[in-house]
Amino acid sequence: DVGEIYSRLLDHRPVIQGEIRYFVKEFEEKRGLRELRVLENLKNTIFETNEHVLPKCEQAMHDNLNEVFKKLQAANDMIHKLQEKEHEARKLQADKLMAREEKHIAHWEEFMKEQQSKRAEVDEEHRKAMERLKEQYSDMEKELVKYAPF
């Protein structure tokens, strides 16, 4: 009695196993065809992609890459020409600057020579003035010696 009551009330394995078998059977039947259709569609899509889309993409990419490569070469050539022009302009500017600097150096040297000659003139005038003053003071001393007996 107790074993039968226990199996009826608490042991649901036979019922659950039957439900599981029914569910698996229904799932496999209904789902299996859908999965086959999905797999078939995927196979067709992959085939079409490999046969048609991929070659078109490769050709378009090849054409576009050639065009981009040509444009990049043209841009590179233009940049190279600009760099050469800038280099020439900088060189010309440096040459002008160097010429100006040499000119300033020449002017400075000329100025310094002129200053040397003026300094020599001033020194000579100063020496002559000193000699005149010495003569004048020596004459004044002689005159003063004449008047010293007073």
Automatic annotation (TrEMBL):
Family annotation (InterPro entries): Bloc1s5
Keywords tagged on the record: Coiled coil
Domain of life, source organism: Eukaryota
Gene Ontology terms: cellular component: BLOC-1 complex; transport vesicle
Coiled coil: 65-143
Family: Belongs to the BLOC1S5 family.
Designated name of the protein: Biogenesis of lysosome-related organelles complex 1 subunit 5
Organism: Nestor notabilis (Kea)
